Amino acid sequence: MDARLVYQTAVGIAQKAQLDLTVAILTQSTLRLEQLLVVGRTQYTFGVLTSDLGSNNSQPTNTEVRLRVQDSFITSMIAYRLAEPATATDTTYVDCTYPSPTIFNNGVEAVQLESLYKAILKITVNGTVLYPGLHMGRFRKVQYAQKATAAANQNGIAQDSIDGSSDGALITEPNLVLIGSKGNLITTEMPVGVTTIGAAGFTRHLFEFRGALAQNSTIIV
After folding, report:
1. Residue 73: DSSP 8-state
2. CA atoms lying within 13 Å on the CB side of residue 27
3. Using one digit for the tens of pLDDT, what is the confidence trace for 159-212?
4. Average pLDDT in the 90-119 region?
5. First to last CA, the chain
6. CA-to-CA distance for 170 and 149, rounded, in angstroms?
7. Domain range list for the chain
8. Who contacts 96 (Cβ-Cβ below 8 Å, separation ≥6)?
9. What is the bridge-based pairing of β-strands 204-215 and 25-36?
10. Dihedral, 74, 75, 81, 86 alpha carbons, nearest 10
């Protein structure tokens, strides 16, 4: 999506909300909300604020980017990714747009992770249900060029051909506004929980909310 269009749309939304743009600074930004996968769990809640604990009652990871209570976020795109960190603080892992069997390779792990794409995404802001049931299958993107195992890698393909700017991402229309001083609830609900995750135990899924950050735009009482 064109960055200038995103900014112009954000300005229009801010003005309708009667925000003072000399105070509420608009900048291109990203929120990154992560949750560890747990065997058998069918519902995940993603913390939005730095003070939120999410469904795992845990602090934000070292690769998360959350919203401050005094800010708002005008979303233009949402992306969904899977990841297999080696440790709790690993930053070298790849964000995947589908459960690649060469990365999620703990037995039937890759097959089990497909269940995540049968889930429903629900988003509520300030008590209003904005997304009552977005099917997660819309985020699944299998790459045309895929990483192969060592034995099959005759063409030297070391990684999936992922375009991080667009693969596994959806444009949000109408725009979704997350407000730091209001209640924000982001959940995924699955029919059946996964039975296998990575052996290290740090397999996670995550959302990237992309758009314009409106700094100092909310009133904190």
Report:
1. E
2. 9
3. 565 655 556 677 887 778 898 888 899 999 999 999 999 999 999 999 999 998
4. 93
5. 36
6. 30
7. 29-209
8. 81, 82, 83, 84, 103, 104, 160, 162
9. antiparallel
10. -10
Residue of 60, 36, 38, 37 lying closest to 47 (CA atoms):
60
Strand order in the sheet with 128-135: 43-46, 184-189, 120-125, 128-135
Report how far residue 140's alpha carbon sits from residue 169's, in angstroms, rounded to the nearest whole number.
Answer: 9
Could you give the CA distance from residue 51 to residue 69 in angstroms, rounded to a whole number?
9
pLDDT at 4 over 50: yes
Q: Residue 211: what residue type?
A: G
For residue 75, report the phi and psi dihedrals to the nearest 5 degrees.
-85, 130
- What single-letter DSSP state applies at residue 86? S
Using the CB atoms, write b or e for 195-218: b if 16+ within 10 Å. ebbbeeebbbbbbbbbbbbbbbbb
Strands of 204-215's sheet in order across: 25-36, 204-215, 72-83, 169-179
Determine contact, residues 202/36, Cβ cutoff 8 Å: yes
CA distances from 16 to 19, 21, 27, 126 (A): 8, 11, 18, 17
Yes or no: say if 143 and 163 are a contact pair by the CB < 8 Å rule.
Answer: no
CA distance 125 to 215: 18
Residue 197 · residue 83 · CB < 8 Å: no
